[in-house]
């Protein structure tokens, strides 16, 4: 699989899966190829019907966003145990509600 691909999982009725498999085989395609072609055709049709075109982002912009996201939200950026934070807030809320 190419490095710029992602995996998705969909649940299909078994009858639909059999039809998909048979139709792809008749056309000499893998299920992946058949589904990718079908999805691309539908996306093109939907985008051409849309009054507002979906934005296209340059790969460099996407890479920069990923870099910024990692910098800002890296799992090591926040060294607070959220379990303890939630426990403290709940205790404070309980004290507040108990004092009313």
Distance between the termini: 61 Å
Taking pLDDT < 50 over at least 5 consecutive residues as the criterion, the unreliable ranges are none
Give the biggest sheet.
none
Radius of gyration: 24 Å
User: Quick one: how many beta strands?
Assistant: 0
Label the structural class.
mainly alpha
Shape: elongated
Counting structural domains, the number is: 2
Report the helical percentage: 55-70%
Order of helices and strands: HHHH
What portion of the residues fall into strands of 2 or more residues?
under 5%
Separate helix tally: 4
Average pLDDT reading: 84
SSE blueprint and pairings:
Layout: H1 14-26, H2 31-49, H3 59-73, H4 82-98
Search tags:
mainly alpha, 100 residues, 2 domains, 64% helix
3D architecture notes:
The protein has 100 residues and is mostly helical. It folds into 2 domains: 1-54; 57-100, no CATH class. It has 4 helices and no strands. It has helices spanning 14-26, 31-49, 59-73, 82-98. The longest helix has 19 residues, at 31-49. The protein is elongated. The model has no long low-confidence stretch (mean pLDDT 84).
